[in-house]
Design brief:
Elements lengths: L10 E5 L3 E6 L3 E6 H4 L5 E3 L1 H12 L6 E2 L7 E3 L1
Parallel strand pairs: 3-5
Antiparallel strand pairs: 1-2, 2-3, 4-6
This protein binds zinc ion.
Zinc ion (ZN) binds next to loops.
């Protein structure tokens, strides 16, 4: 799989029904919810703001989650 945030190849650690956990060289270790992933058929992440949000969350948790509330980071493909 490619990183949903920056589109580079990514290490997928876990795929669960509700989320996917991945490590990307550029974006770090994060989880993305399946609900948000399903939005990526038609839209994609704006890379820089998404990385910034992950970085902010990392100050509170080692493993930040991109969830459906982060839909505002998506732009048209
Ligand atoms: Zn990435």
């Amino acid at each position: 799989m490619n990183c949903p945030v920056c589109f580079q190849p990514v290490d997928v650690l876990q795929v669960k029904s509700s989320y996917t956990e991945a490590v990307c060289l550029g974006c770090g270790h994060f989880q993305i919810s399946s609900a948000l992933r399903s939005c990526l058929d038609r839209r994609q992440f704006a890379t820089r703001p998404t990385r910034q949000r992950l970085q902010e969350r990392r100050q509170k948790t080692a493993l930040p989650l991109l969830g459906i509330n982060d839909e505002d980071l998506l732009i048209p493909k």
